[in-house]
């Protein structure tokens, strides 16, 4: 099984929700397992902000050999979102006509634009029915939007730590991160690594929304009670910033955080309730008790308005990141969901 992505080029330019046009769009994607002759074992994964198409790498414990979604049983698809830096068209992609990258001029993408690319890829792969569509955070925003758009396409929908509309709180966190990047003078240059120092600071801000007070208390409390500087929590923030800078870029981070801010399933659809009531997939919504970025009330709203949805809440000290970490709890909830779904 190869970790190398496949590539699909959209056959035509992509007109974005904003009215702008991306003349060339390429999407990197990966598949795992084999499609049954009945073609009824497709699991489509929508990834979060800085992830990629290699779901076996970033969601271990849930996807992989002997996991709930085992490629021996399922045909798993994960596509890297447009705007990212893992193979799909993004701010650093070179335009074939001009020979230049867009950098700061890359157009605004909405969650609906990301879904439009997923839909084009699905048609290219000739997948006419999806057994399970799953995503958390920004991935969950894509999943719920797609399920609203194409209610007959998905048999099951699994939404983790996500919402129907990105909150003022979430937008404020994203703006704080973008301000950190914009304060880095190198961001305004046409250099692939421009804004690296700002991205490092942005990641430090983001971590405060991804984890919880208890998580930091448990793992980052300074063991040296005489220390006056260079605390464990401080070095942890720097370390995580360095890790992201090594694998991501500031331009994609700005682009995709702006995309997350646009998420609103009710826009142009007579409101959130009316939009969610379009969904026909059997739906599981999972919240996390300690999630301060997407608090459980947001998942409870999804479950309230999606017809017949099952709601489950995980008790976890890991905050928002719990949807990537608590795979044993998620597996247990999935087992209950599918039993309730298919046992009559």
Automatic annotation (TrEMBL):
Keywords: Acyltransferase, Amino-acid biosynthesis, Cytoplasm, Methionine biosynthesis, Transferase
Gene3D superfamilies: alpha/beta hydrolase
Biological processes, Gene Ontology terms: homoserine metabolic process; methionine biosynthetic process
Pathway(s) annotated for this protein in UniProt: Amino-acid biosynthesis; L-methionine biosynthesis via de novo pathway; O-acetyl-L-homoserine from L-homoserine: step 1/1
Record-listed E.C. numbers: 2.3.1.31
InterPro entries documented for this protein: AB_hydrolase_1, AB_hydrolase_fold, HAT_MetX-like
Main subcellular localisation: cytoplasm
Catalytic reaction annotation: L-homoserine + acetyl-CoA = O-acetyl-L-homoserine + CoA
SUPFAM superfamilies xref list: alpha/beta-Hydrolases
Domain AB hydrolase-1: 42-324
Active site: 137, 291, 320
Binding sites annotated in the UniProt record for substrate: 203, 321
Family annotation (Pfam families): Abhydrolase_1 (PF00561)
GO molecular function terms attached to this record: homoserine O-acetyltransferase activity
Record's GO cellular component terms: cytoplasm
Family of the protein in this entry: Belongs to the AB hydrolase superfamily. MetX family.
Subunit structure: Homodimer.
Function: Transfers an acetyl group from acetyl-CoA to L-homoserine, forming acetyl-L-homoserine.
The name this protein goes by in its record: Homoserine O-acetyltransferase
């Amino acid at each position: 099984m190869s970790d190398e992505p496949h590539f699909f080029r959209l056959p035509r330019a992509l007109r974005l929700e904003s009215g702008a046009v991306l003349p060339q769009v390429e999407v990197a994607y990966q598949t795992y397992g084999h499609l049954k002759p009945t073609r009824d074992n497709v699991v489509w994964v929508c990834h979060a902000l800085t992830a990629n198409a290699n779901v076996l790498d970033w969601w271990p414990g849930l996807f992989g050999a002997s996991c709930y979604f085992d490629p021996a049983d399922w045909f798993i698809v994960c596509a890297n979102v447009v705007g990212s830096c893992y193979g799909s068209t993004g701010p650093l992609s070179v335009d074939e006509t001009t020979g230049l990258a867009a950098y700061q001029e890359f157009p605004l993408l909405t969650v609906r634009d990301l879904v439009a690319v997923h839909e084009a890829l699905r048609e290219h792969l000739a997948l006419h029915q999806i057994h399970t569509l799953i995503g958390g955070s920004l991935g969950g925003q894509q999943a719920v939007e797609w399920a609203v758009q194409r209610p007959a396409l998905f048999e099951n929908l699994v939404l983790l730590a996500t919402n129907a509309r990105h909150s003022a709180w979430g937008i404020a966190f994203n703006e704080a991160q973008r301000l950190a990047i914009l304060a880095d003078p190198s961001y305004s240059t046409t250099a692939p690594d421009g804004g690296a120092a700002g991205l490092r600071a942005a990641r430090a801000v983001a971590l405060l929304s991804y984890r919880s007070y208890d998580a930091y208390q448990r793992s980052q409390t300074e063991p040296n009670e005489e220390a006056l500087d260079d605390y464990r929590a401080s070095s942890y923030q720097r370390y995580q910033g360095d890790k992201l800078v090594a694998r991501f870029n500031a331009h994609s981070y700005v682009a995709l955080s702006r995309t997350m801010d646009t998420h609103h399933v009710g826009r142009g659809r007579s409101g959130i309730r009316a939009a969610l009531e379009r969904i026909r997939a059997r739906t599981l919504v999972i919240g996390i008790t300690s999630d301060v970025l997407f608090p459980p009330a947001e998942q409870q709203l999804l479950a309230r308005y999606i017809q017949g949805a099952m709601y489950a809440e995980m008790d976890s000290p890991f905050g928002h990141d719990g949807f990537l970490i608590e795979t044993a709890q998620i597996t247990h909830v999935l087992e209950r969901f599918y039993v309730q779904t298919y046992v009559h």
